[in-house]
Amino acid sequence: MQLTPFCLMLPCLRISPDRSQFFRYDTISLTCEDQLNSTGWNVKRKTLEGGFRPCSSGWGSTSLGSTCTIGNIYPSDSGVYWCESVDGERSNVVNITITDRTVILESPALPVSEGAAVTLRCKAETHSSDHVFDFYKDDHRISSSSTGEMTIHSASKSDEGLYKCSISGGRESTASWLAVDASLPPSTSAPPAASCSVSAIRLTCHLLVGTPYLLSTVLLGLIYRDRMRARTVAERRGNNDVVMEIVV
After folding, report:
1. Chain segment 116-171, per-residue pLDDT in tens
2. How many CB atoms lie within 10 A of CB 6?
3. What is the pTM of this model?
4. What DSSP character marks residue 158?
5. What is the mean pLDDT of residues 79-106?
6. What b-and-e string marks burial along 114-138, b requiring 16 or more CB atoms within 10 Å of the CB?
7. Which of 127, 146, 125, 126 is nearest to 135 (CA)?
8. DSSP state of 67
9. How many whole angstroms separate alpha carbon 39 and alpha carbon 226?
10. Which residues, in sequence order, are bridge partners of residue 216?
11. Contacts of 70 (CB under 8 A, 6+ apart)
């Protein structure tokens, strides 16, 4: 399983398929990922009605530890989702939109790294070879395509914004925010080996913080041991001393 750079850096909520817009009756898989602590996380959400509820409390089903699956989704499942640990630590939040429209924009749900190639897809419920797809950024048309795809070859902060798409006939998607983060690694995905290296870096940081305390404890133990030895030797010498009296 490949992880996004964002999930390599922080505990995060990952969505499969990786997009923020879905058709009614689709299935979504939400997974909490933390490279140092893979357990103890729960998916939670704030619904449009304002409620806060964890997975399996009236919505979704939990499987494989920290994974929540929502099948046959409805527009009422739209809302803000995040991961929360048993200690109260929270991950990033993701805004998911389930629409009853016939067109959606498939764009990354998580921030993308600066310099990465990003492909946006305009998808209609009913496919037709006659469709012409238009893409918009902040309500300005920026591209047209017969394939339904638009690629940003090297994402930058200037590419951040609200994107949507439309097809011939006047049908259009809702808008989704595309975030670009310059602090992320310069790749769109990374194999497990890369995640191991990041975990090693985080583990090293913990060791660097804890090592001085460990060394201080060991040093105090050695000093105490040496003092006890010196005291024992002194007591033994005192017991073995011989006092000689000369009688005249």
Report:
1. 999 999 999 887 778 899 999 999 999 999 999 999 999 999 999 999 999 988 89
2. 24
3. 0.68
4. G
5. 91
6. bbbebebbbbbeeeeeebebbbbbe
7. 146
8. E
9. 44
10. none
11. 27, 28, 30, 59, 60, 61, 77
